[in-house]
UniProtKB/TrEMBL annotation:
Organism: Sphingomonas oleivorans
InterPro entries assigned: Isochorismatase-like_dom (IPR000868), Isochorismatase-like_hydrls (IPR050272), Isochorismatase-like_sf (IPR036380)
Keyword Hydrolase: yes
Transmembrane segments: none
Entry GO MF terms: hydrolase activity
Keywords of this entry: Hydrolase
The protein, known as: Cysteine hydrolase
Domain Isochorismatase-like: 5-146
Pfam families per the UniProt record, alphabetical: Isochorismatase (PF00857)
Amino acid sequence: MTNRALIIVDLQNDYFPGGKFALVGIDAAAANAARLLEAARANGDLVVHIRHEFLGENAPFFAAGSDGAAINKAVINQDGEAIVLKNFINSFRETDLKNILDRNGITDVTIAGAMSHMCVDGITRAAVDFGYKATVVHDAVATRDLAFNGVTVPAAQVHAAFMAALGFAYATMLSTDEYLVASAPAAA
């Protein structure tokens, strides 16, 4: 096993077309996350799947026990891969994520998933605050349009703003293709 972990955040059915909270570009992001997942498994990297559930009976999406809260088939976990159940934006909050990473000697985390402006942002900042080196694979991340003060901000601009902020001081930002080249094992 390497000192690197791939963390796939909240790629759950409700974020996909037909789900309760579909994201812009989710299919492309999930396809790229699947490529990362295949490479991580081949490279012997630790794989951690994050799955969000909202507490209470009025959950807007990701309701406990629902099909919408299930990990999407594009990145479904294999036996032995950790699944961290969370109830908050920050994947480290009140979960075993840090213990899983530390127990496995992880120093570097690679992050893919959803949403750019919430859970991906939250886990990236927390990971760096805990001392991990973070890489966000920006084309394996998706979000949605947002509105503020009567202005609608298109998903592409939301995504770009958050990736720019994370890339400024928190994480290395790479495309899937760039990451796969950079993380490939050295030839013997």
